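Hi! If you just cloned this repository, the fastest way to understand the data is to look at a raw example. We've pasted two of them here, unedited. The first protein comes first, obviously.
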Amino acid sequence: MTNNEPKGWYSRDYLPHCDKPGLLQSITFRLHDAVPKPIIEQWKDELRWVDGLAADDLRVVELRRRIDRYEDAGHGACWLRDARVAPLVENTLHYFDGQRYRLIAWCVMPNHVHTLVETREGWPLNRVVHSWKSFTAQKANVIVGRKGPFWFREYHDRYIRNDKHLANTIEYIENNPNAAGLVEHAAKWRFSSARWK
């Protein structure tokens, strides 16, 4: 398998991934300190976690819910709050839109990023996400005057099953700043596709 071939279903760490051209994919990636590993390990112990759980297993769903809530609470350094870093990330998401993927919705939160893309032939999802993260990490570390990991290694992706799931996912992504209590109306969040509607 070359770097340009899709992997299909595969797993890394505790997250399953699906990589296939033409899929609509919801992707969330976060800063390396947004949800500390010991907290995730504690939650996994509480949930009686075992490796290889199906994506719809209640323990997987609950872990994802806890991570989402923790991210939205704004833990960690929140470098994406920096008015120089957030536009860097947003512009990077747009850079290869229409070439490597089709960007449908996005939101840059203080410590994590949500996107919805349609994948393209020749550009596996892991390469797309890696390119976003590696480029922005290098530039953002210079901007904020630091060295070391910027993004958490893993990312969460979920393929879109149907039109209802698509609509719900776009609403979730675009309303995330409102749900997190950062703005009164989603369209007021500067680094989101909701702003352009």
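Ok, and the second one:
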Amino acid sequence: MQPETIDLNPLIYGLVDMLQRVLGERVKIKTKVSYDTGLVYADPSELENAPLNLAVNARDAMPNGGEMTIETTNVDNHQTARSPSDGTDTRYVCIAVGDTGMGMDQQTLDNAFDPFFTTKEPGHGTGLGLSQVYGFAEQSGGHVKINSQLGVGTVVQIFLPRIEEDAGKSEIPNEKTAAEEQSGRESIIVVEDDDAIRGYMTNALRELGYHALEAPNAGSALEILDRQPNVQLLITDIGLPGAMNGR
């Protein structure tokens, strides 16, 4: 994890076009952001991947189309249904991703965060999407909550601790030289339509310290390049879905 102070609303708005490509034409995406949404201290690449993973699940839960909503709000302990044991009053920022899909039964809800658990057919999902979202939230000092009802839809809420502006900067140790800090932190885009291969590659790169971004097709990769002009390396499959290939 390479956390930094992040303003959520610009990040969410910047993801909308890419998320729409992931969702396809049958799913409409709506954003509802609070104008006073607080800052969070988190890894930006992991924070971008969380809504992307949830969008993939939402798309698969709505094979005939529907609506996905992304909402940001400020919440307190009593609104998260999880208070710390020490009684401290932690304030959070909530990113809620909802869909109008098929929903989950109780057994699925009980196992939703388990690594490799999936209700999809073999070859159509790794079962790592929700577990990665859960791990990211927990490592960032927050947590995740799922509300779902069969035939109605699902809402996944990611709660991240809210901070004062620039408060997180003092938590980063400054013991390395500038050259050492730069090494291994370059930005890399991985373009691969196979979810399992793409997930493995990006996770491996992040473990090595790189800022790894991922795209399932050429169109999504171009969207990222528009937003991230300082990408040093592109790793791409040659055969990609759609009109444009890797070359």
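That's it. A detail worth noticing about the second one: Confidence is low (pLDDT under 50) at residues 166-183.
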